[in-house]
Design goal:
Length: 371
């Protein structure tokens, strides 16, 4: 069974939508898939796949109210089963070590071809440990500066977590890292390759073990919500930073264009693959699932070159769709122009309302301060 943890450095980059649709694409390809909602602080993956509010899930299992076998539920989609997360149980986002280990053990015993684990956003230790269940987890980000930075920082924290798991307490390597922690600013600025070089001299055995584990750790990157082909270049920036500062190789699984169909599909409580399988966004997910199925042995350079080509091809397809709408008369040029004008007007109205609300809040804060 392949375990595919899917994470993001920050929320709002489409991680859960990708997880759900990827599970369905793999199921359609004849693979047995279990989709697990591990975004324990804000579990809502059941809405993406159109499931009713679950009565059993990770929460009821961890509290002893359900057996693990009972929380693996059928879905309306071929070959896809679902494990809900239960966000309403207090404290569930911060699992105890025993709970986490119990969950991991159960995951390893699941009988399926793929286990897709939708993790919460951020770098909580539980999230990092679950991401490290597989050497080839997927990190989802967007082309914005904050999203790409958080994507890189997630991978950086994952490498530090891998280091902590390798350098056991009492070893010379662990003692050295503990000393560095007293000067956290210096530790954060230190390049991993340089750090490993130093540790190799004081604890060569554990340094060699870490190098071996880091070499096996090959996370995969998806840039979601791009607007134009050049946005795919952000993947290369993350890759170069990982190589230089972390000594880590990252593979690109491709890009996905921003599409309002996601919102329409979600409102309809249907995965976008079911709502509109021929859409550009759907085809991108199918392409990613195909790469997972084929597990092609391609170089890291090729994976990023392919992503750039796919971004260009998808952009052409996206623009062709608009041109087809105009060409067939389904959408006239004047209607398109009017649509853009309307959106611009609505954005202006929202900005004005936002400015007004801010001024009211400032005045209210001042009045409250005087009182």
């Amino acid at each position: 069974m392949q375990i595919i943890p899917i994470a993001s450095g920050k929320g709002g980059v489409g991680k859960s939508l990708l997880s759900a649709n990827l599970a369905i694409a793999l199921g359609q390809a004849g693979k047995k898939v279990v989709l697990a909602d591990l975004d324990l602080g804000a579990s809502n993956l059941h809405l993406v796949i159109g499931q009713s509010s679950p009565k059993k899930g990770i929460g009821t299992f961890l509290t002893g109210e359900s057996k693990f076998e009972d929380i693996i539920q059928d879905t309306d989609y071929e070959n896809v089963k679902f494990i809900a997360g239960d966000s309403e149980i207090p404290g569930l986002s911060a699992l105890k070590v025993s709970q986490k280990n119990s969950l991991i053990k159960k995951f390893h015993n699941i009988k399926a071809d793929f286990l897709i684990v939708d993790l919460g956003a951020g770098t909580h230790l539980t999230i990092l440990d679950l991401f490290l269940l597989s050497p080839q987890g997927i990190i989802v980000t967007a082309p914005t500066v904050t999203a790409t930075l958080n994507g890189y920082l997630f991978l950086k924290n994952a490498v530090f977590r891998l280091m902590a798991a390798t350098f056991k307490r009492g070893t010379k390597a662990a003692e050295y890292i503990t000393k560095l922690k007293n000067d956290s600013a210096s530790l954060q600025k230190l390049y991993i390759p340089k750090l490993v070089e130093v540790i190799s001299k004081i604890d060569p055995e554990n340094a060699a073990l870490f190098k071996s584990r880091l070499k096996q750790f090959k996370p995969r990157l998806i840039i979601n919500m791009i607007d134009e082909p050049k946005d795919a270049d952000k993947a290369q920036k993350i890759r170069r930073s990982c190589q230089q500062y972390l000594g880590l190789e990252v593979e690109s699984l491709g890009v996905i264009y921003k599409d309002s169909l996601q919102d329409k599909a979600l409102a309809s409580r249907l995965p976008v693959l079911v709502y509109k399988p021929n859409a550009v966004i759907s085809q991108a997910v199918y392409r990613i699932s195909e790469k997972l199925l084929q597990a092609e042995s391609i170089s890291f350079d090729e994976s990023f070159e392919n992503a750039a080509e796919e971004a260009s091809d998808d952009y052409t397809a996206k623009m062709s769709y608009v041109e087809d709408l105009i060409g067939t008369g389904a959408l006239s040029v004047s209607e398109l122009a009017e649509m853009i004008k309307t959106q611009q007007y609505e954005l202006t109205q929202l900005r004005n309302e936002n400015t007004l609300l801010k001024s009211k809040l400032v005045r209210a804060a001042k009045q409250g301060f005087k009182l």
